[in-house]
Amino acid sequence: MTLTLRALKKSNVLNEVVVARDGQEALDYLASAGDPTSPDPHPMPQVVLLDLKLPKVGGLEVLRRMRADEKTRLVPVVILTSSNEERDVIEGYSLGANSYVRKPVDFTHFMEAIRQLGMYWLLLNEPLPR
To answer: Is residue 111 part of a domain?
Structure first.
């Protein structure tokens, strides 16, 4: 997570980045997104970078619940994980992931991968109208 934040900052991504420490925190955040009556009102994210290995609620379950909820089912989700398991790729796409990216082990390659993700999903991709 720290490396991802560093890579986004170094790539001059100026969008607000919200970090959920576990899957339940991510689901709670998404549940209150876009709700002006929420005690902490915030917009729906433009994209979700989702790790599969999350405490409390795993990444695939977070994705499953996002796609089952009318409010979050169209939010772009990029699975960003170290998993090399073919079944994780298949299940991720089956559950509605928009992209599956394996985290490069090499630091330079990791920084470049995050830069490209930021460029595409935050600058080039046309977000869902709100």
So the answer is: yes
66-87 pLDDT, tens digit per residue, is 999 999 999 999 999 998 899 9
Q: By residue range, what is the domain housing residue 103?
A: 2-124
Q: Please return the burial class of 104, using the count of CB atoms within 10 Å of its CB with bins 0-12, 13-18 and 19+.
A: middle
Answer yes or no: are the C-beta atoms of 19 and 5 closer than 8 Å.
yes
Instruction: Give a yes or no: residue 37 inside a domain.
Output: yes
**Verdict on whether the full-model pTM lies above 0.70:** yes
| Structural domains of the chain, count | 1
